[in-house]
Amino acid sequence: MHESVHHSFEVEQEQPSNRNLTLYGLAILVVFFGCGILITSLFHRMAAPLVEQRSATPPLELRELRAREEHLLGSYGWVDREKQIVRIPIERAMQLIVEGDKK
Fold first, then answer.
1. Which helix (H) or strand (E) covers residue 59, if one does?
2. Contact by Cβ (8 Å): 75, 89
3. What 3 state SS string does the chain have?
4. CA 40, CA 48: separation in Å to the nearest integer?
5. What is the rounded distance in angstroms from the CA atom of residue 38 to the CA atom of residue 16?
6. How far is residue 74's CA from residue 97's CA, in Å, rounded to a whole number?
7. Model pLDDT, residue 12
8. pLDDT band for position 1 (50/70/90)?
9. CA distance linking residue 24 with residue 17, whole number of Å
10. What span, in angstroms and rounded, lies between the C-alpha atoms of 53 and 69?
């Protein structure tokens, strides 16, 4: 049937020195964390002006939206004239709620 064939091979007996392995490991860690710190600092440096620029003044559309919302929250008007649904200022609505709770 099958004959088992054994090949002889040589095993290298020389082991790497612990000192060299430690130095390589430390070098890899320094490079890894150094790159991380470098990339993070570059990101923050480049992103800071953009954040300041965007937060300094809201876009025109946002300012217009807020102005419309403020107007709607502070004025009387019709929501649906056919169904007789009206809008009242938010301050007045809160007063009515508090007065209703007192009764």
1. none
2. yes
3. CCCCCCCCCCCCCCCCCHHHHHHHHHHHHHHHHHHHHHHHHHHHHHHHHHHHHHHHCCCHHHHHHHHHHHHHHCCCEEEECCCCEEECCHHHHHHHHHHHHHC
4. 12
5. 32
6. 16
7. 74
8. low
9. 11
10. 25
Q: What is the pLDDT of residues 31-84, one digit of tens each?
A: 999 999 999 999 988 888 877 777 667 778 888 999 999 998 899 999 899 999
Six token digits for residue 64: 């217009």
Instruction: Tell me the three state secondary structure of residue 88.
Output: coil
Find where tokens 């800071």 sit.
48
Reading the block at residue 24, the tokens are 């390589």
Q: How do the domains of the chain map onto residue ranges?
A: 17-56, 60-103
Q: How far apart are CA 96 and CA 98, in angstroms?
A: 5
Instruction: Band the pLDDT of 9: cuts 50, 70, 90.
Output: confident
Tokens standing for 37?
């710190």
- Asked if 89 and 76 touch (Cβ cutoff 8 Å), the reply is yes
